[in-house]
Amino acid sequence: MKIKFIKSAPSIKEAIEPNLTEIALLGRSNVGKSSFLNAFANQKIAKTSQTPGKTRLINFFEVEDNNKRYILVDLPGFGYAKVSKSIKKEWGKHLDEFLKNRFNIKLFIHLRDARHPNLEIDKNVDEYLKSFLRSDQQILTVFTKIDKLKQSELAALKKKYPDTLMVSNIKKRGFDSVKNKINEILWGEK
Ligand SMILES: Nc1nc2c(ncn2[C@@H]2O[C@H](COP(=O)(O)OP(=O)(O)OP(=O)(O)O)[C@@H](O)[C@H]2O)c(=O)[nH]1
Ligand SMILES: [Mg+2]
Q: What is the domain range of residue 170?
């Protein structure tokens, strides 16, 4: 699998031509979206940080895998509070516009923190996505940071959320399942 950075854009207007299928990575700030992309690609290609609010633009990465090409989109996190209200509003507007109008998005990967599976903000993100989800689009929930859980906690989480996937971006665990699921959803491969 090859991956390359294509472009950062502040809004949908400046986005790349929508020629390829896109997967949007979204979730709360600091949940591990950029780290997920790096672990997925096995390459440090997206910027990560311990401080929430690291990713501030819409970042397009092109993936080439067995003659298939698609775009992974790394996005700013939801719910990052430490910026001024006007900046937050501006980001929110651009993110909202992008997610609702980008017709070539076929999959939303909603990342959630395995240690905090019941956050209000994640329920809101889920409801928000479902409010405009088209019939040709899907949502995949992936829990991150499973390296922070005990085996018993991980088992309980899997039981409670059977339709989700679980990864550790740090330990690069769970990515075979993620890749299989993406191939199944995008290209109907089982
Ligand atoms: N232990 C552990 N830490 C992780 C994991 N994924 C991400 N982190 C850490 O969580 C912090 C945030 O990671 P990022 O990938 O920058 O998070 P993000 O969702 O892109 O954040 P924003 O761009 O601010 O929205 C960093 O310190 C990462 O090292 C994981 O699976 N396990
Ligand atoms: Mg980020």
A: 2-187
